[in-house]
Amino acid sequence: MPTPTLRHAAWLRDGRWYRLHPLTPVLQGGLAIAGIVGFLIAASWEAVLFRLLLGLAEVDPEETAEADSLVRLLEWAVSLWGVVITLAILGIGVIWLQWRLHMVRMSEDAIEVKKGVLFRSSRRIRLDRVNAVGVRRPLIPRLLGLAKLDIQAAGTDASLVLAYLPKATAEEVRREIMEPTSAEPADVAAGVAADTSTVTREVEVPLFRYLASLVVSVETIIFAGGILAASIASSRSGELVTWLSVVVVLIVYVAYLADRFFRVGSFVVDTVDHDIRVSLGLLATSVESIPPGRIHALQLSQPWPWRVLGWWRLEANLASTPGAQVSKAPSHTVLLPVATLPEVMRVVAKCIPTLAGDQARDVLVSGLQSTHAQWVSDNPDLKVSIGSPKRARYRIPLSYTVNGGALLSDVVLLRRGAWIRRLSIMPLARIQSSSISVGPWHEALGLGLFALQGVEGPVSTRLPALDRVALEGWWLDVQRGIIKAIAKPQSPQTRAVKRGTS
Prior knowledge:
- This protein has 502 residues and is α+β, with helices and mostly antiparallel strands.
- The chain has four domains: 9-20 and 103-196, PH-domain like (Roll); 24-101; 206-264; 290-494, no CATH class.
- Helices cover 40% and strands 26% of the residues.
- It has 13 helices and 21 strands.
- Strands 7-6-5-11-10-9-8 form a seven-stranded antiparallel beta sheet, sandwiched between helices. Strands 14-13-12-18-17-16-15 form a seven-stranded antiparallel beta sheet, sandwiched between helices. Strands 1-2-3-4 form a four-stranded antiparallel beta sheet.
- A hairpin with an 8-residue loop joins strand 20 (447-453) and strand 21.
- Helix 1 packs antiparallel against helix 2 and helix 7 packs antiparallel against helix 8 (240-264).
- The radius of gyration is 30 Å and the shape is globular.
């Protein structure tokens, strides 16, 4: 029985093998082959053009030595064209074989992909271990209406890429993997998958705001310092080389802005049922649905240039890193690149449902805008907390008044930073371990460092310069909270995925 090309996700339910889009091998490696062939054609075209001109002018190639060289050049060009045609035929054959042998199959408990001509490979992922499925659309596939799926599963290097499928088919396959019961029998018979998800737009970051956040940033200040130093050196020396350094710094800065703008621009956060869907990219787009249970920690941060504008950044530590198999895929650990405080609080409430109330939101806002002592006194719900003593100013002179932690509901809050304000939020049920460490400087001051261990990511869960005696009691309180949180049954909003857990 011939292997068909996958057109609808519902076809995968019969357990058969299906081929991906015919342009898959071309987009994965055929473009490089086409570039080499084009270079060879361009290299031989001039010789062919000269021969045609000689023929039109009725010049006898044997009359002059120059004509003899043109004849030899023509012979070389003809041979080269023969090689090019042969390589093109072989390339087309290899591409056809790659497409024929690149297949996907999904059973009741796993999805499997096999590919390769000379070196065969097969990769299989259990569906109950899948954390998320991202839809990636690089520029050229996007122009052709294609997309690829980045399937992330629990475990190290446990991911699988389906490239490429028509965009509509890719969306259907994503829903089929994450929501196996989403299609009705009538839809399966018709070859389509039903989509009953409710999509709610939460935050859309304006392009102008994002571009302004790139300009008003610490990186811009560093580049400005470099340009200023190079300009001063150039004006004093008067040499061309020093002025060229100014131009180089400007080019690097513009390239940095362009890369960030086109890669992360058009940032949108939606909620699809209980999941967080993050979309980004102007030329190459990327869409990923993140279940709240896959979010292990959050961090709100505000560099000092953003304080006047009231902007914040929201990052997350995720159970698995999207794009692990494709280095150019964005990580999606940034949930909001730049947003106002109400927008950030709205997304935080969706990521950690226990912080959805107004009271919890007020506690978070107070922690971001006040000292630790004022934060604890203004919020009676923070019954368990710890802060840095006055002697910690010799360890963290700028932030010892805001440095501290607190327990709120089922999460740990860690506040630190003066130049860059940071508030880390970690659910107690997601903590793998906690530790106390004392270095030489802490030892001399009677201080200690508290740290929470979990999945890796951009969120820092370390709190330095805490009183060592109070730190031991704080550590015990956190351990008790972890035990109670793990013993509680999980709600549907906090499960890692709809098919299973991570």
